[in-house]
Write a structure and sequence with these properties.
This protein is an alpha/beta fold. The chain folds into four domains: 180 residues, Rossmann fold (3-Layer(aba) Sandwich); 77 residues; 76 residues; 144 residues, no CATH class. 47% of the residues lie in helices and 15% in strands. The chain has 19 helices and 14 strands. Strands 9-10-11-12-14-13 form a six-stranded mixed beta sheet, sandwiched between helices. A four-stranded parallel beta sheet has the order 1-4-3-2. A hairpin with a 2-residue loop joins strand 5 and strand 6. Helix 7 packs across helix 8 and helix 13 packs across helix 14. The protein starts with 21 loop residues before the first helix and ends with a strand.
Length: 528
């Protein structure tokens, strides 16, 4: 069976194109398993946790007895202490059937029912006896612990593991060599999920856990290696290193996003009317088409993002302020919106500050916030021009887009005060732009320039890129500096033309449209 790109469930090297994670698995074994650590692999949804556990299982199974299980369908186990203890025994028994070299006496010991009167003590004794009598060390892997992470009975189970761990450390008993729990939430920080009245249990059952600081994102070189495998099978003749670099630039190595783009290029874009074969599809234009489909949705990750933003208003406010107002937030994980955004994978730390995790998420957040704003802003929505006039022979007439924005703004917002425009100016332009390019293009904002004073917007439309710098007018000298900066940015993007959108205030303000040459680049300036 030919390999394919996978975005659902566990990735298997023999069946799927995937980044080589052997170095990551080796690091986990050496740093955590051999050292007898208990830890949580807590990463955002669809970040490759289950795949990593499977690879870890395959790496460990010859040297250790590995009890591998999932709590995904374990709701019935957490009805009572007894059902939890017996449910764990049943799941472990099934896992042990796959372990070679386990004697019948050992399986019989494990399969004995737990005490109904003292189920947790009975389970703890069973674990100790089993680990003492086996000829190999025992490792416990549990996936999908989020299914039970807000359940007090589950916390009691963690308490048993903690007690056995501490007894082992004191030389007074045997237990698992290592315990690995995988889920979105860090079990050391259960306060985010506990129900009211349960917060007294916060941080106590799992404070023995080592910090899991292994980078699980897919590296640029890793993506290159995956696409090299693909190229060896399909012989497209495309520049796969360039394709890998482009995919990384949009995703920052978020595993689901990387696989989604590759899968779309391979299975949907290749063979379409615009990209008749794989060679055409694995081009810059083909990858941009996949990016457009990913940003537009629907997909499970985007649906999950919207749900979490709706549920966490402080996170929503922080993201909105970063994107549209250029506000800076220090990256301090004890701040609730920061820790929540990190847990869900929406943000990351860069130079000590909070930033959106990747261009895909940034574009999806812009799209969501702008759509919500347009629903509320009847005046702006009703004044939007007909998008068809901006498309000439299938391409975007960016000059006309900017000319019409000048007219649009003058008609709607020319009398607004400076504070209003400084806060909402870029949002007004993006709200105007989004319906024009929607369905055929997308945009992102360069985070190096996302400040209150200036913003560089990169618009992708059917393989063509357009650079727009938005800024507040702060005098002629500042404006000249902005023109030079834009010219330098155009050079970096190998573009000949750019657009400078300036918001100018004051009773004597001068508005209009002009064109000039700066360092060999054509600048169209729109002052409103």
């Amino acid at each position: 069976m030919p390999r394919k790109f996978n975005i659902t469930g566990i990735c298997v090297p023999s069946r799927h194109y995937m980044v080589d994670m052997s170095a990551v698995v080796e690091q986990i074994e050496e740093k955590f398993i051999r050292q007898g650590e208990y830890f949580t692999i807590n990463r955002a949804r669809q970040y490759g946790k289950s795949t990593l556990l499977e690879l870890l299982y395959r790496k460990l199974k010859d040297q250790y007895i590995v009890i591998d299980m999932s709590f995904e369908a374990a709701d019935d186990c957490f009805v009572s202490m007894y059902t939890m203890a017996q449910g764990f025994v049943n799941k472990a028994s099934r896992a042990l059937r796959e372990v070679e070299g386990i004697s019948k006496d050992m399986t019989d010991l494990w399969n004995q029912p737990v005490s109904r009167k003292w189920p947790l003590d009975s389970l703890g004794n069973k674990i100790s006896d089993f680990c003492r009598l086996t000829d190999r060390k025992v490792v416990l892997l549990i996936d999908e612990v989020d299914r039970a992470a807000d359940n007090q009975i589950f916390l009691s189970f963690l308490g048993i593991l903690r007690e056995l761990y501490l007894r082992r450390a004191a030389g007074r008993g045997d237990t698992f060599q290592s315990v690995v729990l995988a889920g979105v939430h860090d079990i050391r920080n259960l306060k985010a999920k506990l129900h009211p009245g349960q917060e007294q249990s916060y941080n106590s059952p799992w404070n023995i856990a080592a910090e899991f600081n292994v980078d699980m994102s897919l590296s640029r070189d890793g993506i290159r290696g995956m696409l090299a495998d693909y190229e060896a099978d399909h012989h497209t003749g495309s520049d796969m290193d360039a394709a890998a670099d482009m995919i990384y630039e949009y995703t920052d190595g978020y595993p689901f996003l990387v696989s989604y783009i590759c899968k779309k290029v391979d299975e949907e874009i290749a063979g379409s009317s615009s990209f008749p074969d794989r060679t055409a599809a694995w081009s810059r234009e083909g990858i941009l088409e996949a990016v457009k489909l990913l940003i537009k949705g629907p997909n499970t990750l985007y649906d999950d993002m919207i749900k979490h933003i709706s549920d966490h208003q402080d996170l929503r406010e922080m993201l909105n302020n970063i994107l549209f107002e250029g506000q800076k937030y220090p990256y301090q994980e004890y701040d609730k919106p920061v820790s929540t955004g990190k847990m869900f994978g929406f943000i990351m730390e860069r130079d000590g500050m909070v930033t959106v995790a990747n261009r895909i998420f940034e574009s999806q957040l812009y799209s969501y916030f702008l759509s919500e704003e347009l629903k509320k802003n009847h005046r702006q929505r009703e004044a939007l021009p007909d998008r068809n006039q901006f498309i000439q022979s299938g391409f975007l007439d960016m000059d006309l887009v900017m000319e019409k924005f000048y007219e649009y703004y003058q008609g709607l917002y020319s009398e607004e005060d400076e504070n209003f425009i400084e806060k909402y100016g870029r949002k007004l332009f993006l709200m105007y732009l989004k319906p024009i390019i929607n369905g055929a293009g997308n945009f992102y904002v360069e985070d190096q320039s996302r400040t209150r004073l200036r913003t560089d917007i990169v618009i992708d439309y059917k393989g063509q890129q357009y650079i727009v710098e938005c800024k507040i007018w702060h005098g002629a000298e500042y404006n000249r500096q902005g023109e030079k900066q834009l010219a330098g940015y155009l050079e970096a993007y190998r573009a000949q033309k750019g657009y400078l959108l300036s918001f100018r205030f004051g009773k004597q303000k001068k508005t209009g449209i002009s064109r000039r040459q700066i360092n060999g680049k054509e600048i169209m300036e729109i002052v409103v």
